[in-house]
Amino acid sequence: MKKNAxxxxxxxxxxxxxxxxxxxxxxxTNRIEVMQTGRxxxxxxxxxxxxxxxxxxxxxxxxxxSIETVGQTVEFLLARSGYVLADxxxxxxEAQILxxxxxxxxxxxxxxxxxxxxxxxxSGDAFELVVDPVHRKxxxxxxxxxxRNE
Length: 150
Known about the structure:
Mean pLDDT is 85; it is low at 15-21. The N and C termini lie far apart (88 Å). By secondary structure, the protein is α+β, with helices and mostly antiparallel strands. The strands form three sheets. A three-stranded mixed sheet has the order 4-7-6. It has a two-stranded antiparallel ribbon with strand order 1-2. It has seven helices and seven strands; from the N terminus they run ααββαβαβαβαββα. A hairpin with a 4-residue loop joins β6 (127-132) and β7 (137-142).
């Protein structure tokens, strides 16, 4: 009799534990849709951050020697992101000077870091990255910290 009670208790406990660990139940309480992709595999039905914002993709790259300027480097880094460098007519004189400067050797190996951090790294603290997500363009403007000091 005692063995039967223990067996029944174990069955009830294992059923409760299985019910609490069901990913579908977790998804309903947190309101995140969960999809079953295999017999025992569940994934959240949300896009990764780098698909929501291509500038958040993690990159690790070596800049070829054929690229000589900061502007060419920006265009190289943006090549597969869907973003482009804004037209030079909308860039400030300081930003145009930056983009025409030779690329420092230390910036030839970039990453691993997000693309937006890499773009900020090659411009330095004197500039801020300006992003137009509607037209998928990026530009640089003089840092507000630096502009206040002038």
